[in-house]
Design a protein that fits this description.
Pectate Lyase C-like; 28% strand; 448 residues; disordered N terminus; eleven-stranded parallel beta sheet; alpha/beta
Length: 448
């Protein structure tokens, strides 16, 4: 008979492979609906640009929903995709299996009213020598606003995996600064993993999860996974305002969540206190994690207002880690608030103890149709394995995907939500719960 703990492990594996969705959670309305109600634009080629390409669809004007009649890899060959035309939805869920994976390049969002779902971005070093100067984010918003980044996988970036950025100071007042950089950005159910450490970035070590740049506001991290990043899960810079709800941080090396207003960057500008509201988040140490690493570290010279509730920080053995710490000699103060600094009234917040299981089965691109790289990372999280890496070559190199084709049928989709009317996505042969039930029955037979 199989021992109970092994049986439970197999069930966890079935959950990952079946892509069973987590229970529905109440949440506020998104800051945008992207290109809802706009024209349908079909991507028909995996070429990085030209007719029928994703790049061409992004450059079009007017409200549009980008769907895919092709699946496979778009190799950007060290270029990038720029979104500077607003009112657009990228619906990666419409692609035939294996979905859309972007290689050797990332996405910069420089517009408003943008929604990106179910896309993989696997940056990697593209064969560039260490410290040679090639640096790029897998996904970054650049002075963008009203953006939703939901159910995507970002891996192997040589700068941040997913960030909200822009100019630090635009105009004369704090309100003008905040209006001029990224604001109203929601990151939900994404996987940001294995930022490359000693790679092609000119600064050397640069395995980073997420950077929230100075004065960015209403930045929401809702049920994301950060895994195997040295730092920045996330880094919140001076004056920024961030809400973290039910996120999972695994194997941070030197810092997990941290805040830093740098005097060298703010010069003679008056300091503005940052704000972080963190509820129901989990940090679990791994093979790369420094001993006694705190959940939140404070550096720089600016104060941080912080509200925290039901956050868990443990090492690789499940022993408690500190909640707060500092780096550098600083007069910055951690100001603990008695009430949330962001509105939580419309969130159905999970208890922190449920977060890991829920996110392993629901975060990342196409949970019903995961790539081998995503499965490896998620299983390693579940098993307490893996580590920070310097190159994608350490974990098998760039993946190869077959090119597949299937016509997009609008009648199959609810165009308001971009979900299939029968609940079955491309590449998913049966509904996830049915797949789990079948696998569960098989394992119960094996366990007898």
């Amino acid at each position: 008979m199989l021992k109970t703990k092994y049986f439970h492990g197999f069930v966890a594996g079935a959950l990952l492979l079946a892509g069973v969705a987590a229970p529905a959670f109440a949440q506020p309305g998104d800051p945008t609906e992207g290109g809802k109600g706009g024209k349908i634009v079909r991507v028909t080629t995996l070429a990085k640009d030209g007719p029928g390409s994703l790049a061409e669809a992004l450059a079009m004007k007017g409200p549009r929903i980008i769907v895919f009649e092709v699946g496979g890899a778009i190799d950007l060959e060290k270029s990038g995709l720029v979104i500077d035309e607003p009112y657009v939805t990228i619906a990666g869920q419409t692609a035939p299996s294996p979905g859309i994976t972007i290689l050797r390049g990332g996405i910069d969002v420089k517009a408003h009213d943008v929604k990106i779902s179910h896309i993989r971005v696997m940056m990697g070093d593209a064969g560039e020598p260490k410290r040679s100067g090639w640096e790029a984010d897998a996904l970054s918003t650049v002075a963008a606003h009203d953006v939703v980044i939901e159910n995507n996988s970002f891996m192997w970036a040589v700068d941040e995996n997913m960030s909200a950025s822009g100019p630090r100071f635009t105009g004369e007042t704090v309100d003008e600064w905040r209006k001029g950089t990224s604001h109203n950005i929601t990151f939900r159910l994404n996987l940001a993993a294995e930022g490359l450490a000693d790679s092609s970035h000119p600064k050397g070590e640069h395995s980073k999860g997420s950077l929230i740049h100075d004065n960015a506001t209403n930045i929401v991290f809702d049920r994301n996974i950060w895994a195997h990043n040295v730092e920045r899960s996330p880094l919140v810079k001076g004056g920024a305002q961030v809400l973290m709800v039910n996120n999972f941080i695994y194997d941070p090396a030197l810092r997990a969540v941290h805040y830093n207003l740098m005097d060298l960057e703010w010069t003679d500008h008056p300091h503005v206190a940052g704000e972080i509201t963190a509820v129901g988040n989990v940090m679990r140490g791994g093979n790369s994690t420094s001993e006694d690493l705190p959940f939140l570290m404070l550096g720089g010279v600016g104060d941080l207002k912080f509200y925290g509730k039901d956050n868990i920080a443990v090492d690789r053995h499940g022993e408690a880690l500190p909640m707060f710490g500092t780096y550098g000699q600083t007069a910055a103060k951690l100001i603990e608030a008695k009430a949330p600094l962001a509105d939580l009234s419309k969130y159905d917040v999970m208890p922190a103890g449920e977060v890991e299981t829920a996110l392993l089965r629901s975060a990342g691109a196409r949970p019903w149709d995961r790539s081998a790289e995503e499965i490896r990372v998620l299983f390693y999280i579940a098993e307490g394995r893996g580590e920070v890496i310097d190159s994608q070559e350490e974990v098998g190199g760039y993946p190869s995907f077959p090119e597949t084709r299937a016509a997009f049928d609008p009648a199959y989709w609810d165009l308001a939500t971009m979900t299939p009317r029968n609940g079955i996505y491309p590449g998913q042969t049966v509904a996830p719960q049915e797949a789990l039930s079948t696998r569960d029955r098989e394992m119960r037979e094996q366990a007898k």
